[in-house]
Design brief:
Layout: E1 2-6, H1 15-21, E2 26-29, H2 37-42, E3 48-50, E4 65-70, E5 73-78, H3 85-95, E6 101-103, E7 110-113, E8 119-123, E9 136-142, E10 147-153
Parallel strand pairs: 1-2, 2-3, 5-6, 6-8
Antiparallel strand pairs: 1-9, 4-5, 7-8, 9-10
Length: about 160
């Protein structure tokens, strides 16, 4: 199963990320979505999971956290703003201890920690707001016996 993981679009989805996400079986957005992004993402893949971030409106229709069964384990998703940076990864791993991987956003910094289960995956920003290292995403291929992750980042766009 091909899963595209992204976060922190803040109302702008980099077109290169959108192109790479097209045709995914599952798209996961870890919060701070912004206007019209949910509709854009829904058109790109078969299924879409979004969790709310601290910059999403309180009336946004998305939950604060989600768990999705995948081939080979559970994927948990939470924006991560609920805890300070110093304890965030530990708290996410504790909260979702049964998961194979936990996806978060908020920091806009790309992280792939796969040495400890649950893995911790932060795709960085998929838009233009604080896209440290360039806008990007994480691709996860999940099979019943193996999970493969690849972090992808594009060159930052020049400001005009």
């Amino acid at each position: 199963m091909r899963i595209i993981i992204l976060a922190d679009t803040h109302g702008f989805l980099d077109p290169r990320v959108a192109e790479a996400a097209a045709g995914a079986e599952l798209l996961v957005h870890a919060g701070d979505v912004g206007a019209s992004i949910a509709d854009q993402l829904a058109a790109l893949g078969d299924e879409l999971i979004i969790v709310a971030g601290n910059n999403d409106p309180e009336e946004a229709p998305w939950p604060n956290a989600a768990i999705r069964e995948l081939p080979g384990g559970q994927l948990a998703v939470m924006h991560g703003h609920q805890w300070p940076a110093k304890t965030r990864h530990r708290k996410l791993r504790e909260r979702f201890a049964e998961a194979q991987a936990v996806v978060c956003g908020h920091s806009h910094r790309r992280v792939v920690e796969s040495e400890t289960v649950p893995w911790l995956l932060n795709p960085g920003a998929a838009g233009r707001s604080r896209a440290y290292g360039g806008p990007g995403y994480i691709e996860l291929i999940a099979t019943p016996t193996d999970w493969q992750v690849e972090a992808v980042a594009f060159e930052p766009r020049r400001r005009r």
